[in-house]
Protein 1
Amino acid sequence: MAELKNQMEELVLEAIDEYLRDRSEICDCEKCRLDMAALALNELPPRYAVTERGKVFAKISQLECQFETDILMAVIRAVEKVGNNPRH
Ligand SMILES: [Zn+2]
C-alpha cells in the first residue's frame, strides 16, 4: 500500500521535540505540540512524497541548509507563540 505523505510534518515534529528538550518551561503535551506543528506547517511549503505504508521513509538529511533554517525559524516562532498562550 502506498500513501501520500507530507514529509514536512515529520521534519517539523522532530524539530519541535528537539527544541522543546531545551525549553523545559514550555508545555510539551500533545495538544500544544500539535498546535505548534500546525502553526509552523502553515508557514512552510508542503513537501509531498509517495511512501510505502509502514515503511520508515528515508530521512531527508539531504535537505538544503536554507530549508532547515526555514523550518527552525518557523518552529521557534510557533513554539514561543503556543508556549506563551497554551490552549489546553
Ligand atoms: Zn499543553
Protein 2
Amino acid sequence: MRIGVMGAGSIGCYVGGRLAAADVAEVVLVGRERIRQEIAAHDLRAVDMGREHVAPAARVRFETDAAALGDCDAVLVCVKCAQTAEVAGELAGVLRADACVVSLQNGMHNAERLRARLGERVVAGVVGFNVVSKGEGVFFRGMSGPIQLEARPGARRLAGVLRAAGLEIELHEALEPLQWTKLMLNLNNAVSALSGAPTVELLRAPGFRRLVAAVIEEALAVLKVAGIAPAALRGVPIGWMPTVLRLPTWLVRIVTRAQMKVDPEARSSMWEDLERGRLTEVEQLNGEIVALASRLGVDAPLNRRIVERIHAAEAAGAGSPRLDAEALWAALT
Ligand SMILES: NC(=O)c1ccc[n+]([C@@H]2O[C@H](COP(=O)([O-])OP(=O)(O)OC[C@H]3O[C@@H](n4cnc5c(N)ncnc54)[C@H](OP(=O)(O)O)[C@@H]3O)[C@@H](O)[C@H]2O)c1
C-alpha cells in the first residue's frame, strides 16, 4: 500500500515513522518545511518507551504540498482539529476516488467535517496513546494504547498494514462511544498544560487527581443529561474513573499499572502546544463539554474555567503557567 500522512507532526510522524521503519508500506509524509529539514538531518526516529524505530531519511518521502498524496491508497489525517476543514479542501482536489481517508485526531467532529468534502470513504479513528516531538527527528510515544478505527470499507486493509508495523489496531462498528471515552481522558490535558506536570505526576499527586476527578465527574454528569454513554476503558466503566482517582495513591498505582504503561517523561500535547506558542485544542475537548452543557441548559463551571484559563495562557504566549495543584484548584473552583 502507499500510505500518506496529511499533517506530519507528532502523531503523523510517529505512525508514518513506524510504517517506514518497518518497511511495510510506501509512506508519503506531508508537513512543514521545519520538520522536513529535521528528518533530512537526523532520520525519522519513532521512539516507543525505550525502543527506537528508525526510518533513514533516504527512505522517507517528506513533502510540503498535499498534491504529493495524489496516488495514495490511504491517507491518515493528523492535523489539529482547527485545520481539518482546510485540509479536507486540499485533499478533495488531489486524492484518487478510491483512496481511503482516516482521521487520527482527537475531538468529536473531524470525520464529519472530512466527510462533508470527501464523502463516505472517511474512517474515524481514535489514537489511544500520546506522542510528543522532541526535536532532531525524534517522536516520542509516552504511553501504551491501541489505535481504534471504525470498521468501514478500506479500514481492514489499512489495519493489516499498521499491524504489520507492530502497532496495536482495533476495529469497531461504532466509534462514537470510544471517542467520548477518549474525550473524557483528554480532559486532563488542560490540567497538564496549566501545571506543566508530567502525566505520571498527575496520577501520583493527590491534589492533581482530586482536580482531574472533579473535571471528569462534571463532564460525565453533562453526558448523562444528554443521554450519551461513553464506552468502557479496557473493560472498566469510565464512570468509575473519578472514584478510582480519589483512591489512596498506592491503590491508584496498582489500578493504573494494570491499565496502561506511562513513561515518566510523558506529557500532553496541549502542554506542548502552549510551550510552542500554538493554539490548543481546548475548544474541542473541555469546550465540547461546555458547549453541550450550554445546549442542554446546564452549567459546567470547572470545564468552563479551564477553557478560559487555557485561552488566557494562549494569549499570553509564555508557555505553561506552571501552576501547582493547590494554585490550580484555587483558580478553578
Ligand atoms: N500528540 C498526541 O499525543 C496525540 C494523541 C492522540 C491524538 N492526537 C490528535 O492528533 C491530531 C494531531 O496532533 P499532533 O499532536 O500530532 O499535532 P501536530 O504535532 O501539531 O501535527 C500536525 C502538523 O500538521 C501540520 N499542518 C497543518 N496543516 C497543514 C497543511 N495544510 N499542510 C502541511 N502540514 C500541515 C502542522 O503544522 P503547523 O503547526 O505549522 O500548523 C503540524 O506540524 C490532533 O487532533 C490531536 O488531538 C494527538
